Amino acid sequence: EILIKSSSKGLRITEVPIKVLYDGDTSTHNPIAHGSSVIISTIKYTSLQRPLTFYGIPSVIFLIIGGVFSYLAIQFYVEVGRLNTNLTIISASTVLIGVVLLITAILLFSLVSIVREGKD
Questions:
Q1: Which of 26, 77, 98, 107 is placed for a possible disulfide with 63 were both Cys, Cβ 3.0 to 4.6 Å?
Q2: Does residue 26 carry a pLDDT above 70?
């Protein structure tokens, strides 16, 4: 998060060599828990910085997949005369997920824009 913020403000980042000695107790953090918290923090930060990209692109992908499965379900119904429940459930669920992600992207983008305008 510090690297992302400093980079967005145009600061230069350089690497400085240091000497490290690992004597005795080195760390009290569980590496899996710490790695998970870093990943979650990065995802949270990215979703707030670019909500339309973060939620919008998956939304479009889900809507396209839902449209394809809806087309296949309708085509099956026209040819056979009954619904294919698997195609129908997949199409309905992917369209629903796509719509929820799209609404989330729009709302979060609006909220972030309002907060940014208030800070300026």
A1: 98
A2: no
